[in-house]
Structures
1.
Amino acid sequence: MNKNEVKKDLYKSKEVAEFSRYVAGNMYYQVKVGFDVYEFPIPTVETIKLGDDREFVVDYKTGDVALSSDLGTTTFYKDMKGSDLNRWIGKAIDNDEFNIVEVVVAPI
């Protein structure tokens, strides 16, 4: 399924995405598209490149963290309309991070 098909399906079906877990700076949501359940990450922090080719998310000396500018003022809930998360679903598809977690058999 391509990005546009996924977005169309979510607008039509009004499926609800459900928060799954938070790991290593990413919120993970699951949503049903067609007959399958997919999972995708929403990054909450940005990796900062240091001058010496190292990267960090949190500066443990100062406690500074670079929150993702992509979040803006979005409020995230446990359950949300899948179409409200299309911005991050599209990015997950582009980054090959929109993965099937459950294959549901179509009714006969």
2.
Amino acid sequence: MARSPPTGPETPPRAAPRVLVVQKKSLLELSRRDAKFTAAVVQGHPLGMRALAAHADNERTVEIVRQTIERLGVLSQVVPSLRREMADHAALVVTVGGDGTFLDASHHVGATPVLGVNSSPRSSVGHFCGATPDTLERCLEDALAGRAAPQRLPRIVVRVNDHAFPARALNDILFSHAVPAATTRYRLQRAEDGAGEEQVSSGIWFSTAAGATAAIASAGGLAMDPRDTRLQFLVRELYHEPGRSYVLTGGFASGPLVVTSRVRAARLYLDGPRTVVRVGFADRIELTIAPDDFRYFSKSSLRA
């Protein structure tokens, strides 16, 4: 009778990291195969030197974050991008970069709070970033110890033909033709009062209260109270057909906003160009405020 092989002690399952660090890829890293970009760096062009300095800042900040977390004795993991199931098992997500890195991470986070670290304050606005390399240790300690309360912000849920897109926009969404120079044709409807009309324009901005100071503000939108849970929308460069009047050129909505595409190739851009939803002819897009808030440590919450 064959004997079973001896078994050794079981390897304990690896503990989930308490802190997930999302590291930005710098312009220098993203452009290594771009001959013109490389030439600009090698030849000392001012734009190339600026990118080189920002890359150095980013590398230095990543190392500061690593050393600070190690000094605090916190189990962590550095990742290039985030998935929802990863974030759900962490106590804190730390983004290292600027607002772009922060916004990308915000799309895939549930209840886990986020702390943004501005890796290059001299070249990045970092509006959502609550910490800098100089303030990181105190901010990280306060966030993990519960001494700072995260702020809450609404996000936008996108449904295309009743299919919910997993990423949620924190700032804004642009609906437009896939080709920027092409005309965007669609029907826009506001569910709360049933108002609806067909339009021809360059597209539509949709914004949360947090995003009301961003792109939609530059296009002529209005400022909002950060606690406002309505959606703001603004039509871009509306074509006024002769003899027609328009009602839905901009404003606010407490309920869903619905767009039906009348072009074969349209796009939804969530918080910039990196998260894109493809939309086709007759596709129905519904935009609503998510039922759960996004939580993050702002500059003001960390000073409290």
3.
Amino acid sequence: MGDSGEGLIDAESRIEERREELQAERKLSQKPSKKNPELLRQLDSLGLARTQLTRQLDGATHENRRMQITNAITDIDLRIAELKQEKQR
């Protein structure tokens, strides 16, 4: 029975992540930055990688693999944050 509740939590977190991604995409489309197109390309690439890893995490059953994917997502989040700070300069 505990697994069904876990599935609901995962579904809710995926919905929230997608909502945040859409908001970030809207902000980027509203404020096109012509200062550094390479920076925008990197942000887009990292966002796509994060989405792919999130999907892999949903299907992963082995705990070690889940940990690897979670660490990779955390690393990508840090890199995205660094690039966004660089973009604001």
4.
Amino acid sequence: MHYYLGQLYDDFWHESKFPLNNIWWHSPEKGQNSMGFLSEEFDSCADMVALGCSYTYGVGVEESKTWAQIIADNKNLKYHNISGSGRSAQWAINNFFSYVHKFGNPEIVVALFPEFTRIQIASNPKEMTTKYIPKDVEIKSNIIRYGTFTNKRTGDKYFKAPLIAEETFPTETSFDFSLQYIKMLELYCNSNGIKLLWSTWDKHQESWLESNIDKTEFKNFISVKTWEWHVREQDNFYERYCQKKHSSIEVCNYYEKCHEEYEILYGDNFYRASDRREGKPEAHWGVHVHAHVADTFIKHLNEMDNCERQ
């Protein structure tokens, strides 16, 4: 280190205040509340809190038709969305603990986590930095906090400072952190009588969890069956719902029609997200997928309610 430890402690303590001592995302923009979230103002604890990244925040659809908002409407719950685009499971859970520290425990927590290779970290930029400094990162001290997507294996190499975080952190590191944070979330909710349901939109993670959940300690995972959706160029990159598993979705000419009431209201946004561009299949979900994800959470919440009544 090129600076004395007292300075390191002071700087790191300052940066670590977010999010554990605060509930804040970024400076608010149009449609957001004063804390920068796409939600109503936080004046007291809500009945239900939603955690996640952009799929929960609502990128690509109207706020009223995100999967979490559909749940809240169906269950007639006061609801707060404390998710953030591009954020990790670790960030989402930290944000949840900031929320309960300030407002108290909700009755229900629903979460849709991203791939576990995302991680939020802090470092001295002279020692390690990120390829792209996000616009909401303010360099106020010798420590910066930022998010990265780990996808590198370092191997046996010698490094010269500053390290590049995306090329330094092994995937296993962020994956392990995500699992540990989810375990802490489950333990907290189960110890405090909070109904928790969580899933992931990452197809590979969900497939593994769906097949191996009995081998894990997780008790609150549910599958939203992301494999049931086909997105293909020949379908104009529309999201097609099909419950059959195929070795190649290109051979499938079958899809199920449902939720027609949303199709009438939202048109093209029913089939695909507003951020999906022609020729580029990478995008968020349209209203139809949000409706199905909401249906799955509602089904499991109703089962939990029935168990309580028995």
